[in-house]
Structures are given as C-alpha cells and as structure tokens.
Amino acid sequence: MTKLSTKHLLGIKEITADDINLILNTAESFKEVINRPIKKVPSLRDITIANLFFENSTRTKLSFELAERRLSADVVSFSAAASSVKKGETLIDTVNNILAMKVDLIVMRHPNPGAAVFLSKHVDAKIINAGDGAHEHPTQALLDAFSIKEKLGSIKGKKIAIVGDVLHSRVALSNIFCLQKLGAEVMVCGPTTLIPKYISHLGVKVEHNLRKALEWCDVANMLRIQLERQDIKFFPSLREYTMLYGLNKELLDSLSKKIIIMHPGPINRGVEITSDVADSDQSIILEQVENGVAVRMAVLFLLAGRA
Amino acid sequence: MMKPRIILDSKHFEITVTRLCYQLIEVHNDFSNTVIIGLQPRGIYLAKRIQKKLSEILSKKDIKCGSLDITFYRDDFRQKELVPNATEIDFIIENKNVIMVDDVLFTGRTIRAGLDAMLAFGRPNDVELLVLIDRRLSRHLPIQAKYIGKIIDSIASEKVKVEWKESDGADKVTLING
C-alpha cells in the first residue's frame, strides 16, 4: 500500500484499514520531521491550501495550518465570522470563488453534518473534513489512533472506552469507525440521554456506569460536554454530571490497572475530568496535540500526492 | 530478454567495499570529525557495511553513521507513489565532514534531494559522495561521486540491481536489460 484509496478525506467510514495504516505509518516519518531543529520540508511547495472554518476552532485550525506550513504549502485561512457568508453567500459559491483563485486543496470545518461530502460532489478540489457538525472528525480519530498505537504498541485487541457526550460528538463517531477498522474493541459510556439510541448497532458496547467502563478499558477517551450544541437539558445539572461521569484522581487511582487518559480538547477542567487527572502521567492529552500535526501532515502529503 | 549480467559477485563486492574504506581512511584519518550518512532506502546497507568495516580496520567503535530519508525533498513527488522511510541522525552534522552514501548513482536527483534534506540537520563543513555503482552516462544533474566502487556504462532502459546479504541473501550487483 503506497496510495490512499480515496481522493478526499471526508470521514473514517469511507476509508479502509489499509488507508488508515498508511496514514499512521507516514505520520511516524513526519513526527521525526517536526522534532528536527528545522521542522520544514519542501514537499508541497507548489500546492495552495484553503482552510475554511465555518465554525470556531483553535486547536484543529492551528494544527492544520502548522502542518500545511511545515510542508511548505501556501496557506489561506478563512473564518466564517469575517466573511461574505454573513452577507448571504452559499457554501458552493464561497468555495468556487476561492477555487477560482487556484486553490488545490480545501480543509473545511462546518456546523452541518455532511457539508464536506456535499462539497466534494460539487467542486473540483480535494477536500479534507476538519469536522462537520456531530458527524465526523476524521483527523482527530487518526491522531487518537496514532497516539494509542504509540503508547501501547498496537491497536488490535485493545479496549477503548469513549466517555461522555457521545450524542453531540463527531470525535466519538470517527473514533468508533477508526478503532474498529484497526481491530480494537470500543465501548461508549455516558448518561442514557447522551448516548445515541441505536449506537449498539455499530458494534460498540454501551455502559452507563463510569467505574465499570474504566475497569474494562485500556484507554479512556473523555469527551467534553458540548453545551453549545445542547438546545434542551440532557441532564439535571453539570454538577450532577460531574458526580456521575466526571473522572477524578481518586477514581483513577482506585482502578485495578493503570489506564491511559485521552481528551480531544478543549478540556472543561472540573467537569468531565479534573485538573490532577488531566495533568497526571497517565494522561496523553498533550501528546495527542503534538501527534495531531504529524498526522495532518501525513494526510495532506498523501492526498496532495495523488494525481 | 537477455540474461542478467553480473557486475560484482560477492567476492568482488567485499574487495570493493574494503578498498572504499581504505580510500576514506586516506582522506579522513581517524574519523574524529567525519560522519557517514546513508540515503534511504538502499544506501543504508552500504553505509552500515562501511561503518562496520572501518570500525574493524581502525579498531574504533564510535564511527557515526545515520540514515536519511529524502522522500519529502524529491522533485518527482506526485509523478509516482513514494513511501517514506525512517530518518535516524542522532548526532550534529554542523561543521562535520559528511560522507553521503548511496548504492547507485544514476540521474543524480536522489543526491540533489539528499543535499537538501541534510540541511535540516545543520551546515556541514564538507560533503563528499560515495557510491557503489556509478552509471556515468545517465546523469541529469551536475553531480559526481568522489569515491566509486565501480563505474559502468549502461543505457537508461537497463536496470542495475544491488542485492545485500542483509535483505536479499547475498551480496551481488547485476545489470538487467529493461
């Protein structure tokens, strides 16, 4: 395998296990590159990339921009707040106008699920989905898989629990697809209101007791409560949520084995995870961020390399 | 198709590598300020072999040898699929004399990319090129090797295949008609 089976990265669901392994292996080379004194390689010097962020983001946007610049691509960035979208322009028009300026590749985050797929059918450029609503966030899943592989050696047969607001989480869905394709067992854990009704059809275990989920798993991926997407009350109070589903040091230390703690960020300290857990030696939250740049470099390199 | 022609068999292979080592010692003495860098993927076998031989001849264990991957620096990216390999250079090359090692010198494009890639690790004092096989009639760029195992005259459609004990079972160089 030296080539991705796809022209776009729209979601993990559409790509194969071979694609994922190719991306993770390539990312290893890029991790070495970004730890050099000179962190830049000239691979994409003739490529122009547009980052279209129709939804707020710090980490993903910065991570993509750094990855693009370290591959020597030319980068234009755009955020919806300061654009003609506010004046009523449609998504296709916005993107076609950007493409008219000779852009080769588009990285897009959008609040609507399916926005990336829609775009890939209507414009002539390679598209990378940087998060579409509560649907998929493929590069996050890839960097999570990379981080788990780096820490545990392999993913096959490992047990990963995804804890928290699974209902509103694109990270959860992409992670489930990615980890299952790599042969891991996945469990979701959270209050019934935040677990999608039919999620067990994806082949994941469902657990409503945090301690049981943590005793079962090798890795716990703690999701943020996405209050901005919750138009109704899904639980009585944040305090109650924290009491039942927040991970604190006492709970972590009382487990029979040492598990790895992940979080896709941004962390709500004291809600889904306490500070002493986030900063503990079992947490790989900052490694995830570092690996994010390497994994995104790999995705950009492999997609741009496709004729 | 014509029968592949053997250019170096395992005996001459050994003799050639030994000669290259003595040529290096003539110039670099005890290798105190010299490092070896093999180009991925196939140059690293020769680099490791030379490092090992030099250690034997000089009774010196700390001859530095790294491997450099040039995938991200190639000028034919997007014309063919490229798979990156590991770069492992755990020493500083700033102000060092660098011996860049590859198995076959053909168009010179790999070496060009290698020179670019090396700059990410510092500014060497001096860079020399060592190759096992020099296909001298096929150059696209003004690049020459200083240390050469064997020069051969071949046309572009022919292929030079270098096999290594470590990966292919025996040391051998053959010329194959394309």
Spatial extent as radius of gyration of chain A: 19 Å
In CATH, the architecture of chain B is: 3-Layer(aba) Sandwich
Strand content of chain A: 5-15%
Oligomeric composition of the shown chains: heterodimer
Distance between termini of chain B? 8 Å
CATH topology of chain B: Rossmann fold
- The second-level CATH architecture of the largest domain in chain A is 3-Layer(aba) Sandwich
Low-pLDDT parts of chain A are none
What is the CATH first-level class name of the largest domain in chain A? Answer: Alpha Beta
Structural class of chain A: alpha/beta
Q: Stretches of chain B where pLDDT falls below 50 for ≥5 residues?
A: none
CATH class of chain B: Alpha Beta
Strand order of the largest sheet of chain B: 3-2-4-5-6
Question: Care to describe what's here?
Answer:
The complex is a heterodimer of chains A (307) and B (178). Chain A has 2 domains: 17-136 and 292-305, Rossmann fold; 138-288, Aspartate/ornithine carbamoyltransferase (Rossmann fold, 3-Layer(aba) Sandwich), CATH 3.40.50.1370. Chain A is an alpha/beta fold and 307 residues long. A 5-stranded parallel β-sheet of chain A has the order 7-6-5-8-9, with helices on both faces. In chain A, strands 2-1-3-4 form a 4-stranded parallel β-sheet, with helices on both faces. Chain A has helices at residues 17-34, 59-70, 91-100, 115-122, 138-152, 170-181, 210-216, 238-245, 249-253, 275-278, 285-305, and strands spanning 48-53, 74-79, 105-110, 126-132, 159-163, 185-189, 205-207, 219-222, 260-262. Chain A is built from 11 helices and 9 strands. Chain B is α/β, with parallel strands linked by helices. Chain B has a single domain (5-176), classed as 3-Layer(aba) Sandwich (Rossmann fold). Chain B has 4 helices and 8 strands, in the order E-H-E-H-E-E-H-E-E-E-H-E. Chain B has a 5-stranded parallel β-sheet with strand order 3-2-4-5-6, sandwiched between helices. A 3-stranded antiparallel β-sheet of chain B has the order 1-8-7. The model of chain B has no long low-confidence stretch (mean pLDDT 90). Chain A binds chain B through residues 2-3, 26, 28-29, 32-33, 36-38, 40-43, 71, 301, 304-305, 307, and chain B through 69, 71-73, 77-78, 81-87, 116-117, 119-122.
